[in-house]
Amino acid sequence: MTMTDPRPLAVVTADDRGAGARRRRRKIVSYSILVAFAIFYIGPILMLVGASFKTLPEFFKDPTGLPESVELENYTEAWSLASFPSYMFNSLVYTVVATTLFVVMSVFVAFPIARGYVRGSGALLTLYVVALFLPPALIPQFQLILNFADLPVVGNLLAIWPEGSEKQGLFNTRTGYIMFFLTNPIGLIILVNYIKSIPRELDESAAVDGCSYPRFVFFILLPLIRPALATVIVIHAIAIWNELILATIFLTGDDKYPITRGLLVFEGVYGSDWPKLAAATIMLMIPMLVLYIFLQRYIISGLTSGAVKG
Amino acid sequence: MAATKQNLFGGGRRALYPWLLLAPGLGFYLLMGVGPSLATAYYSLTDATGLRGLPVNWVGFDNYDEFLLKGARGRQNIDVIQRTLVFMFLVTTIQFGVGLLMAVLVNQGGLRGRLIFRTLFFIPVILGAVVQGLMWKLFLRPGGGPMDTVLGWVGLESQFFAGPSAFYWVVLVQIWANAGFTMVVFLAGMQTIPEELNEAASVDGATGWQLFKNVTWPQLTPAVNTNFLLNIIGSLQAWMLFLILTGYSSPSTRVLGYLVFAEGFGQQGSGSFRQGYAAAASMVLFLLVLILGMTANFIVTRRERKYLG
Question: Which of A38, B39, B103, B167 is deepest in the core (most CB within 10 A)?
Answer without folding.
Answer: B103
